[in-house]
Amino acid sequence: MVDSVNSETTQRPGRTSREIATTILKLVAPVLIIGFLLWRMPASAWQQLSERAINFPLLAAALGVAMTALIVSFVRWWVLVRCQGIPLRLLESLRLSSICFLLSFVSAGSVGGDLFKAVFLARRSPGKRVAAVASVFVDRGSGMYGLLLLVSFGLLIRNANDPFVFNGISVENIKWIVGGMLATGTAILLVLVLGGKFVDRVIRKLSGIAVIGPAIAKIGPPLRAFHDHPWAFALSLLMSVCVQGLFVLSMYLIATSMYASPPTLAEHFVIVPIGMLASALPITPAGIGVLEVTIETLYHLVPARATDASGTLVALVFELVKLVIAGFGMIFYWTAGKDVQESLEYVEEHPDEFDTESLGEVHQ
């Protein structure tokens, strides 16, 4: 009896120390992330910002528009999760998505934070691992589809006498490339979402193929789950277009708040989606740097008339706006429960477990 009491007494300080260390880490980690991202920005950029006269009401409007876009994207993921039959409250999805948005700034590309969402759902709903990963993949694909729609829309409404060439590719070739990608994506969506029993039979037959069969058997059924929720899936696509359109408007408001003759809103519908698409590539944390280079290049190529705006500076301010929004994710990170912290630790300890080769293994 005495030994058991002594054992509990000796264990308690260890648990307390660990809890204190975890609490300190929760408080410090997000601050370090934001601080590092601000520190890595060049001094010349800060000097250029300090020298410009900025219309702060317009800049505040850009912040509000960007925040609205992110909230809509968070709700979109929640809709897709519910289509998979995974229980998740809306407020909880907003909390998780905010944390993931913060985490995306320390992983390559703009997709890194999504891994945490898949891990959290898989740990909470044993047996739904593939469905959890599918919800994240489809959410990202839905966002990309919205980007393609906006690029197509921007190229159609753009009115310029001199066609531009981007990295050796003419505007006409860009139209064909975007059109081909959009047509392919549309065909895949129609087959997976609207296809009937014939598609199910095809999936079952392809599942028997030696090389690709196992992957199709694992991924096919969760994707086909959207067949039972066509209107919800259509809503997610509409929300994707809304999200990307709001980001375009946000960057246009930033440019207008800083310059007298920025590219027009219609031209931003060409510039921004291409820049966002480039920044989604897994090159730098949250696509920072890639977006600036792409926007700067397109600011010189797309506008029909000369502009005094710096694409680099506008994109930099847009990144700062996203950093301000990521600051709200710090609050959710600090107040996260035990299940969220355990999922974060699991992602750090098993970074490669949720790859395409292990989708079929159910984590208990």
TrEMBL record:
Residue spans crossing the bilayer: 20-41, 53-75, 137-156, 176-195, 231-254, 266-291, 311-334
User: Subcellular localization, per the record?
Assistant: Cell membrane
Query: Which keywords appear in this protein's UniProt record, sorted alphabetically?
Result: Cell membrane, Membrane, Transmembrane, Transmembrane helix
Single GO cellular component term: plasma membrane
Q: What is this protein called?
A: Inner membrane protein YbhN
One Pfam family assigned to this protein is LPG_synthase_TM
* Mode of membrane association: Multi-pass membrane protein
What does the record give as the organism's lineage?
Answer: Bacteria, Pseudomonadati, Planctomycetota, Planctomycetia, Pirellulales
Main subcellular location? membrane
